[in-house]
Write a structure and sequence with these properties.
Order of helices and strands: HHHHHH
Radius of gyration: 18 Å
Distance between the termini: 14 Å
Number of helices: 6
Strand content: under 5%
Number of domains: 1
Shape: globular
Length: about 180
């Protein structure tokens, strides 16, 4: 049997679930850090940076998966998601054409980062994922969680997990049925 576009979409949907499970395992151990002692503030800052970097790396990988899924035409029934990805792709293409590599704070305004201000194209994939989260969050609580800039990193991670799982399930249902 030949590898099909639907097979590729189903594999990427599984990869979304894998990302969600890995992030879920990671955040299970995220407890508040005791800042009552002098070294507590430094430990809290180190833990916060580590958590932000994990969330950033997850968002990059999720953005790459969304980008690939768009290329496989997985979002034909979700035109807003498709348009968002094409818009960010256009921004990235313009940056490439102008030989510009921007830092994350120049493109996205989010409460987590890679931990460095080095120029990178990863920021475009984070922008894709964050844009998806904004569009996909349907409940009042999810929108509130998404829009609150100083939201706890663990709660933001939980939102990312929930939205990746929802999209993965939708794609599996949609494209598994098409194969029958």
């Amino acid at each position: 049997m030949a590898w099909t576009q639907q097979d590729s979409i189903l594999e990427e949907a599984s990869n979304l679930h894998r990302l969600a499970r890995n992030l879920e395992k990671e955040i299970a151990g995220w407890y508040p850090v005791d800042q009552s002692q002098t070294s507590g503030a430094a430990d809290a800052e180190t833990a916060s940076r580590r958590r932000q970097k994990i969330l950033w790396n997850n968002a990059v990988e999720a953005g790459v998966l969304l980008f690939k899924l768009c290329g496989e035409n997985a979002f034909e029934s979700q035109p807003r998601v498709k348009n968002l990805i094409y818009h960010v792709r256009g921004e990235m293409r313009n940056a490439l054409d102008e030989f510009k590599v921007l830092c994350n704070h120049q493109i996205v305004n989010i409460p987590y980062s890679s931990g460095s201000c080095l120029p990178s194209y990863d920021v475009y994939f984070v922008k894709i994922f964050e844009g998806f989260c904004d569009l996909w969050a349907v409940s009042y609580e999810d929108h509130r969680a998404f829009e609150t800039y100083y939201f706890a990193t663990k709660m933001r991670a939980q939102l990312h997990i929930r939205l990746m799982d929802q999209l993965g399930e939708l794609l599996k249902k949609q494209f598994s049925n098409e194969m029958i």
